[in-house]
Amino acid sequence: MPRIARQKKEDAIFHVMARSISEVDLFNDNQDKACYLDLVKKY
User: Which long-range contacts does 14-21 make (Cβ < 8 Å, 24+ apart)?
Assistant: First the structure.
């Protein structure tokens, strides 16, 4: 039996997680990381 779909709300709080595989760096440098965080804030 499938689960009930999540209800989307404008004032909801979400947990965002980014992970890489094995020993691969997730970000190239601090500027790359800052760009990612800016995009997360924007969207």
Answer: 16/40
What secondary structure does DSSP assign to 1-17, as a single string? -PPPPPPP-TT------
- Distance CA(28)–CA(13), nearest Å, equals 28
Mean pLDDT of the chain: 88
pTM, full prediction: 0.58
The tokens describing 41, both together, are 């804030």
Contact partners, residue 20, CB within 8 Å, separation at least 6: 26
